[in-house]
Each structure stands twice: as C-alpha cells, then as structure tokens.
Amino acid sequence: QVQLVESGGGLVQPGGSLRLSCAASGSIFSIYAMGWYRQAPGKQRELVAAIISGGSANYADSVKGRFTISRDNAKNTVILYLQMNSLKPEDTAVYYCNGKGPLSDPWDRWGQGTQVTVSS
Q1: Would 93 disulfide with which of 25, 38, 42, 99, CB 3.0-4.6 Å?
Q2: Which of 28, 30, 50, 51 is nearest to 106 (CA)?
Q3: pLDDT in tens, 36-53
C-alpha cells in the first residue's frame, strides 16, 4: 500500500505564496498518477492539479498560471509539490494529496489534508 502525508499549509495574505508537499511511502512503484484536491467549507472536493507518471500535468482553470505541480522521485519515496503563487481568498480550503494506481491495478489513496487559509 501507499501512504501519503501532506505538509506546508498555513495562513498567508492575498497575493502571497505557499508550497505544499506530499510524501509518498510504501509501494511507490505502483503509483500511476498523483494530484492535489481541495475542499472548501460547504463545497465539494475538487481537483486542483494532477501529474501522471511520465510528467504530463493538468490544472483546474481557476489555478492555471498561478499554481505549479511537480514530482520528485527518490529511491524509497516520492515527493509531490504544489507551488501556489498569487494566492486569493477563494483558494482557502483543505488541500488533499491523492495517489492512484494504473488501470491494470486500480487503487486510490488520500492524505490527511492540510489547511490553507488566504486572508488579510
């Protein structure tokens, strides 16, 4: 199995930046895709950005040009990052890291979430 642990959330002023990290451990060889989702109070969880093994990334329209997803592969772990710039109050949410297996062996794992609050 794969375990995911997020870090890096916090309080930031509008226009500021934060970088979220997600450390994956366990059966990291089975990871096909990783992504960041967010859930604001009273709203459904939504995809923010995702990256597929091989490097292809996609973003929600609301974060294009402001957020960058990247993945760092090490020997026994994978670190997923989300660099968030030009933050807006509407980016306030709990951010969750997600990992998925391939179609040949589908699985789905979530991290515990990290709070991001954008406020003056």
Answers
A1: 38
A2: 30
A3: 999 999 999 999 999 997
